[in-house]
């Protein structure tokens, strides 16, 4: 896909342009095939550790979709979701994601290594009760405690059809599945969502986290999200923690959980087990004082 320059100078994907339509349809047809053909082994879930900043302990993982297309190679999940989201293929994709992740969590629990997994769902997934039914069914089938599964939703999902989305979220909450607000700070009317929804976690968008070591404005935004969320009793996760300076700055700001390349990249389930076996908790407090931030 090509990116179009907007007047603001940022790259914008333009799904409405005719130029892209044939390509988009081909991609969707390939996705459907990859999902429906039992012999296709193209779609996998990768898992990225989430680390408690104060203790260094791994508290969970985020499950992230990877599609290795036979000709295109690795497809950017963000673009893929943007295209799939407008169609019925999204439901198929989410069904696969949920199924794979809950099975994986059950396997870890059965192996004596219970690990909480957080998975992403899109706007459309929240418009029917199907997702909640599927999750409830799988949890029961595997005899899994619901707190081992968390769903990440974005504010965009809430804006599209607040009534139906709220109904789904309330059902999820009653099931005991935790809900995180993803990409926080990039959407609209953020503050009211924090108060109105049964959330347990807020994820600070990585654009702010990445900027925090170099841009005082980003650092200020991150600090105030942490403060606000903390005051409302929500766990705060920073994503995009790429290096030690950001990790230290988050620690100083009182952020609870870090997720990013500083600790580990998303990886297949078997690699994650190897990584966990080698991992030794590190906490900023036991290290020498940091250099001052921007
Ligand atoms: P997200 O949910 O906000 O996921 C976090 C993204 O940050 C992931 O990108 C992850 O690989 C990336 N990331 C993690 N640590 C770092 C870091 O230190 N630096 C940088 N630069 N990036 C980091 P990814 O895997 O490309 O996924 C992009 C987006 O696609 C996700 O954003 C999510 O919105 C969507 N997505 C991914 N998997 C799924 C899925 O299974 N279902 C749905 N509906 N959406 C998904
Ligand atoms: Mg996410
Ligand atoms: Mg995010
Ligand atoms: Mg995102």
TrEMBL record:
The keyword Transmembrane applies. This is GGDEF-domain containing protein. The chain holds residues 391 to 684 of 718 of the full protein. It comes from the Bacteria. Keywords: Membrane, Transmembrane, Transmembrane helix. Residues 24-280 form the EAL domain. It comes from Pilimelia terevasa.
């Amino acid at each position: 896909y090509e990116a179009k320059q907007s007047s603001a100078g940022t790259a914008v994907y333009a799904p409405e342009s005719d130029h892209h339509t044939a390509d988009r349809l081909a991609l969707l047809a390939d996705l459907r095939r990859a999902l429906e053909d039992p012999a296709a082994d193209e779609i996998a879930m990768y898992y990225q550790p989430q680390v408690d900043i104060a203790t260094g302990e791994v508290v969970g993982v985020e499950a992230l979709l990877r599609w290795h297309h036979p000709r295109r190679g690795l497809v950017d999940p963000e673009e893929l979701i943007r295209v799939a989201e407008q169609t019925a293929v999204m439901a198929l994709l989410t069904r696969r994601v949920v199924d794979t992740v809950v099975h994986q969590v059950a396997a870890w629990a059965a192996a004596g290594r219970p690990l909480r997994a957080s998975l992403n769902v899109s706007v459309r997934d929240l418009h029917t009760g199907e997702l909640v039914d599927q999750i409830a069914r799988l949890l029961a089938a595997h005899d899994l405690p619901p707190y081992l599964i968390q769903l990440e939703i974005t504010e965009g999902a809430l804006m599209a059809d607040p009534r139906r989305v709220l109904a789904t979220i309330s059902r999820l909450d009653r099931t005991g599945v935790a809900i995180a607000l993803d990409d926080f700070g990039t959407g609209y009317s953020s503050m009211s969502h924090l108060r109105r929804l049964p959330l347990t976690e807020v994820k600070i968008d990585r654009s702010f986290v990445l900027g925090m070591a170099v841009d005082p404005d980003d650092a200020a935004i991150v600090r105030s999200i942490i403060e606000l969320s903390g005051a409302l009793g929500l766990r705060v996760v920073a994503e995009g923690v790429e290096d030690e300076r950001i990790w230290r700055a988050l620690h100083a700001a009182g952020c609870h959980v870090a997720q990013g390349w500083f600790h580990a990249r998303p990886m297949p389930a078997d690699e994650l087990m190897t990584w966990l076996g080698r991992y030794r908790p590190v906490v900023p407090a036991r290290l020498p004082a940091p250099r001052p931030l921007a």
